[in-house]
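Task card 7
Instruction: Convert sequence to structure tokens.
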Amino acid sequence: MGFGVIAGAPGGPPRPPGGEDPRHEGEVATRTQRKVARPPRFKVVLYNDDYTPMEFVVEILEQVFDKSPAEATQIMLHVHHNGSGIAGTYVLEVAETKVATVHKLAEERGYPLRSGVESE
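Output:
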């Protein structure tokens, strides 16, 4: 029974400077990169109603969804003409928080504005 000698081990052949193993000289070193999966995204949708003032919807879009006045107006008009519109796209927890904020602010002002979360 024999034992192999390990390069660089005590009593074995010396390891070359830099620590490279001459048996692997000329081989290409590859590194496997892991792909990090993006968490699923969800759309926050605003729904049109006949009672919530357009100005309030613009205010919500600016304050809750960080939209510019022009972008907020454009989204509000889309909701008004089409029945619903996307206020933003977020990870689930953020989308749910924004929906709850919209409902809370609307209820505080006595408006029936509704919003919801849909998968992207």
